[in-house]
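Example 5.3 — Transmembrane protein 177
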Amino acid sequence: MGKVMHREGVWIGALAVELMLLPTLLYCLSYRGCGPGIGQPAGRPRELLADFSFSWLRFTTVAALMAGPLWRAAAFVQRHRTGLVVGSCAGLFGAQISYHVFPDPVIQWLYQYWPQGQPAPLSPELQRLFQEVLQDIGVPAGHSYEAFTTFTFQPVSAGFPRLPAGAVVGIPASFLGGSLTNTDHPVVVHGQRVNWQSPAGARLRDALTLSRDAQKFALAKEVVYLESSAAALQALPAPACLAGTWALGVGAKHALGLYGGPMNIRAAFNLVAAVVGFVAYAFSTDSLTHALEAWLDRRTASLSAAYARGGVEFYEKVLSGNVALRSLLGTHGAKLYTPSGNIVPRHWFRIKHLPFTTRRDSVLQMWRATLNSGRS
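Solution (predicted structure tokens):
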């Protein structure tokens, strides 16, 4: 197999040289002349031959210099293809998990709430709320968590609580109540300032006002996600699909005997394999995300009836807020949100997250089941 792949690299270099020399040959035949009767009348065959020899030598030298790096690169790829695939898979995994390994500077820098040019400290009220959630879940004392105030409407999180860097959780400033939704406080969403006096603005203000149970559900969902270390699982599909596509592609080309055939057939096969690999990656990633989101909702709602009730309220408020944003943003809002409040998928062949209506209905069923079991 190594000889076959090496021969393929040599063919690439030879093909590059031929393509570079072809314009030179056509130029000489059509314009400069290679003898009497071709482009020039007879009379100076010696000068023409000398001129052609000089041009041919010059262009051959340039073409060889240009084809050298291409041939060396092709040979290097063929010689170290396994190491390159392993390195690419490791790079994909590391890129997706890096901000979870070092969450503190990255997440706070992206999501920190700066009300008056200074980072807003976490209020004692929100700190007590977060500690209460940690106690309800039963987080071990050795796990490290740090909370901060974020400008987003929903909590954000990253990290691994078991690692020395710990995990960070961003608590929305809107959890404080009317401080963010005050009519004198400017709030910009998608480049447009929110008019709190309008009907849509009033609906958005109501959607941002959550009860204590709804706030605890939103925070507990993030803590359950961090405790499960699901971030490492979500980083696996990309390198797994890359390695699988490469291995299956090489095996299929050997089985079909494509290494001994024309190069254009192998190129077409590689293109088809890449498309199939991307489809497999998209399907596996979206399926994993759907399963993980459904599990997070069920796990959080199972903490108590209060958490289940808070989960229903939380998703109802999320849907109501999205409907308000759809009205506030006009035509741009219609491209972002559906009339029911779900997020419009950006890709026609992918649904990256579960619809909020589906998540609300799932938590609602758990709440009803909890109430029925309590009555019985």
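Remark. The chain has 13 helices and five strands.
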